[in-house]
């Protein structure tokens, strides 16, 4: 008994719809891979689910941009306008410049220089010497700035110390002026420490 014919319409149940999407997506990707291998065909497949997640397949012998270029050529339709073409050229230019800079950095670090001719080696040597001069100049400026800051802080601390000493001297002088000039010394000495005569009174012996 064969399977009944399935009516092609939107599946209302979200869980059933998700399960069906996963099964059929995997099935169509499998079929695309099979026709690519069995028939040596160039296949590119892109699927977007209702959640926006993308799944894709492309034959190992080609790429998605190459497939799109073939489509433009054979269908006579332009998928990219002049703005996108200029942007693509700019990306290629920046990519090449970045690759050249990476090679230059490796050369400056002494890597991959065995095959360089003498003019290139001399150019690298001059670049390194100029870089060292710039580093030394920058270091000198930083040391001078740091020394200036330390000198400023030292002068500021010395000024604060001098002001503090002046205030202490002024306060000390005022305290000395407030002391009474004539004061009974015996009044300041406790009773137990007052001086007593060493010899008894001679009149008491007589």
Automatic annotation (TrEMBL):
Query: What name is this protein filed under?
Result: PISTILLATA-like protein
A Gene Ontology biological process term: positive regulation of transcription by RNA polymerase II
Q: Which domain of life is it from?
A: Eukaryota
| Cross-referenced Gene3D superfamilies | Transcription factor, MADS-box
Q: Where in the cell is it found?
A: Nucleus
MADS-box domain ranges (all copies)? 1-61
Give TM regions. none
Where does the record place a coiled coil? 77-111
Which species expresses this protein natively?
A: Carnegiea gigantea
- Please give the Gene Ontology molecular function terms for this protein: DNA-binding transcription factor activity; protein dimerization activity; RNA polymerase II transcription regulatory region sequence-specific DNA binding
Please report the stretch or stretches of sequence annotated as the K-box domain. 84-174
Q: Which PANTHER family match?
A: SERUM RESPONSE FACTOR HOMOLOG
**Which keywords fit this entry according to its UniProt record?**
Coiled coil, DNA-binding, Nucleus, Transcription, Transcription regulation
UniProt GO cellular component terms = nucleus
């Amino acid at each position: 008994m064969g399977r009944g014919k399935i009516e092609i319409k939107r599946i209302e149940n979200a869980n059933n719809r998700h399960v069906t999407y996963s099964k059929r997506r995997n099935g169509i990707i499998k079929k695309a891979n099979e026709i690519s291998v069995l028939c040596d065909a160039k296949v590119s497949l892109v699927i977007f689910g209702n959640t926006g997640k993308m799944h894709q397949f492309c034959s190992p012998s080609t790429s998605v941009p190459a497939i799109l270029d073939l489509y433009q050529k054979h269908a006579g339709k332009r998928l990219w306008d002049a703005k996108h073409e200029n942007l693509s050229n700019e990306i290629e230019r920046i990519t090449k410049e970045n690759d050249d800079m990476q090679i230059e950095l490796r050369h400056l670090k002494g890597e991959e220089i065995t095959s360089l001719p003498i003019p290139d080696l001399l150019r690298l040597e001059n670049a390194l010497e100029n870089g060292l001069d710039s580093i030394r100049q920058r270091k000198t400026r930083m040391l001078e700035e740091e020394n200036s800051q330390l000198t400023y802080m030292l002068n500021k601390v010395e000024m604060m110390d001098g002001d503090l000493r002046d205030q202490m001297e002024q306060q000390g002088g005022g305290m000395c002026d407030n002391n009474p000039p004539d004061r009974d010394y015996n009044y300041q000495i406790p009773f137990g420490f007052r001086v007593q005569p060493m010899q008894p009174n001679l009149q008491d012996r007589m």
